[in-house]
Amino acid sequence: MPKFRLSCALAALSLLSAAPVAAEVTGGGPDSFVSRHEVVVKASPKEVWLALISPATWWTSEHTWSGEAANLTLTPQAGGCFCEKIPEVDEPGRFTLEGSVEHMRVIQAYPERALRMQGALGPLQSEPVNGILTIAISEVEQGTRIVWEYNVGGPMRYELPVIARAVDGVMGLQIKSLAKGLGPVEMPKPEPEPEPEPAPEGEPAADEAAPAPAPAKAPAAPAKAPAAATAPGAKAPVVPVAPAKAAAKPAEQVPEKAPPPKAKIPTVDDVFSDLADEDKP
Fold first, then answer.
1. In this structure, what DSSP letter does residue 15 have?
2. Of 37, 49, 27, 5, residue with least CA distance to 173
3. How many Cβ atoms from other residues are within 10 Å of residue 167's Cβ?
4. Does the global pTM surpass 0.70?
5. Is the Cα torsion angle 69, 75, 81, 85 positive or negative in sign?
6. What is the pLDDT of residues 203-213, one digit of tens each?
7. SS (H, E, C) 47-105
8. Is there a smaller number of Cβ atoms within 10 Å at the N or the C end of the chain?
9. How many CB atoms lie within 10 A of CB 142?
10. Pairing between strand 81-86 and 89-91?
């Protein structure tokens, strides 16, 4: 029975090189990783949403349990299921009832803006891990931007670099397949930052610390004024010295307490700002 296989997932990585999809895998911890893909298509947000909630039309059949993407369904409501039907078998010598698989469960569906689901896909289904898939949709000058982020965390029996690369390959394959029917837009690659030019010989580099200036010498103490002349045999007058007054301490200012901030009601833009507004082309 076809299913998510690591070998297929690794082979899928070679198919992504020609796709106009930006991909990134980051490690969030010793037992977690994030797979992130991004693509821009010519279709409108409504067209993208209608295609997204119909996985039978774009999900790849080789990454299903039944071997046919036509058996996939997705209910775009909180608590809805991204499920797969396992057809019954009725053939000579063998008969089975119909089965099913829950790939993910919808935890947030905002039409034409975002879809968020929870679940462990493919080989992760046998592990005590949790996965959150967020697909954000936003309008850009070239069309519609789709950001696909799968955040996985928890103990697993796979080597993290191997499973992370395999899962990322499958995720990239799915967003590429989704974008294929929506008119993918080839985006220019960001230019690398120029390297700093080396400093000419004999001159210190710009990042080298300049020698610290020599400390200035303290000014010399003023010369003592000459004592007043007195008549021979006369005693010098005694000048009373007034005791120095202690400097008064400035009154401490008590800072005024700031009023408590008003509670902000999060908007949809706040919830998906990490995906919908980051690095827009």
1. G
2. 37
3. 25
4. no
5. negative
6. 555 555 555 55
7. HHHHHHCCHHHCCCHHHCCCCCHHHEEECCCCCCEEEEEECCEEECCEEECCEEEEEEE
8. N
9. 13
10. unpaired
